[in-house]
Amino acid sequence: MSDRATGELLSMAQDQVSARLTERGLSVTDDEVKAVTTDLGRISAMMERLKPTLKASDDTNAFGRMLETFSRPQASSSSGWMEWEVNRDGPIPATDRALEKAVDTAHQLNCFIEIFPRKAEQLARRLHEENHGTQYPLYGIPFAYKDVLSTADRHPTAGVGQGYRWQSQSHSVALKRLVDAGAIPIGALNLDPHCYTATGFNSYHGRVLNPHGPAYAVGGSSSGAAAAVAAGIVPFALGTDTGGSVRIPASLCGVYGLKPTHGLIHDPGVVPLSASQDTIGILAESPASIGRVLDVLSDRPQDVSEKVEDKGQSHPRHSLGVTLEGVKIGTNTSELLAGMDEAVTGAFRRTRDALVSLGAKLVEVPFPSIDDLNACASIITSYEADAVHGNALARQPEYYPPSVRRRLLTAACVSREDYQSVLRLRGKYLAELLAQALSDADFLVCPTIRISAPRVDHIPDDAEAGGALSLEFLRMNRPFSFLGLPSLSIPVGVDANNIPIGLQVIGRPFSDYDLLALAETMRQSLD
Q1: What is the predicted pLDDT for the residue at 53?
Q2: What CATH number matches the domain at 81-308+319-367+439-526, 3.90.1300.10, 3.30.450.40, 2.60.40.10, 3.40.50.2000?
Q3: Coil, strand or helix: which one is 88?
Q4: What Gene3D superfamilies does the entry give (predicted)?
Q5: What is the pTM of this model?
Q6: Fewer CB in a 10 Å sphere around the end CB: N or C, the chain?
């Protein structure tokens, strides 16, 4: 095709994009139209490549039905997890210490949007007066949560200007369960605006600083949650994860971060981004801490003893002990390990050797194209994010920074046909992974992030650069959100600048406790 013909086609495409966005009530620049047209060209090329693999029998509900065939995990034994410091001295001193640390580090880390001293102190006093600690599995333990969870007396900011508040008809189930279990919320945490980038930057509330080095990126979007745990303000924090938003900052801050199996924690009181991928996540100082919180948060059917007959769906039951003898850990050199920088490669090799020394066997397994999985996840996120934010973007553009606006403009042009096709592909990909990679191995392993944390002053302050960094951070995380699989980021070392490096382990659906048991065995044996 001649350059002139190509130019004419591009001009036609840009006219169509401009008309589509104008029809949605959006005022856009020529540069924005060009950027969106480029994005849509990539999506179109990917769909043309993947659509021939679809069969008429494939349907959009296959993914959900497949998850339903797996038994949900039983609660762990609380006595098997760590004892919290608060159990020894009561809720009031523990809450006072957490509040003091939160206030002292407010300017150093900027991890809180709002601190709740009065509410936290009242709740601590009430728990102390009842003095029935044994009735509360999380008795008097302070925590904080990403500012996307609604309560009866507070609407979340979603990380944008104070004039914006997400109006939810539901209150957060997760927060209620934690408070009912005796935990004490001390504040709402900073985040990337609308959870739609992964850098930790926030033009409304200021960026969150990495406790291990304020000059380096903290990651996001649950940036405040990771920083608060890493700084020792709280022993655990709640985040949300749609494509890596818990695991990315957990990796860069050197804490543990769990994205549970999709559907294990259902909470209608959370600001949505992509309903079919969103989940509450937990960040904590140890895998055992996450396990104890997961006991309180997870949705379990009454009959937790239900068995699955399919041998391909059996998995360990969080009883790995002090060795990993016989445990098979899978990876794929070309898809899961490609592109790691020197520091991440070194951390992976040391961890690999340590796993082998504990008795684990590393096996090479087949794995789909990371690029294709990321593209599919992006289409789902875009289409579902437009359903949440499309109208508000036109009415309240001041609450959407350039990096988020750019993604939502593209989202407004994603077709329902492509969205439905990707939903059908989702079931196919999960079935293939369970039949192959997660049949040959008990767990999969890959870096949480392929690169060491960049310096903040090396990241240009524009939508294009911020988007590129977010995509790099998301690359090894989004595929497992798309597939609905439980994923845990584990701290495994530091780079030359003493900024943490994380390794991600992935399991079969509802093997969340098995991931935690694997990580706890590694932590206890290798410390």
Answers
A1: 78
A2: 3.90.1300.10
A3: helix
A4: Amidase signature (AS) domain
A5: 0.93
A6: C
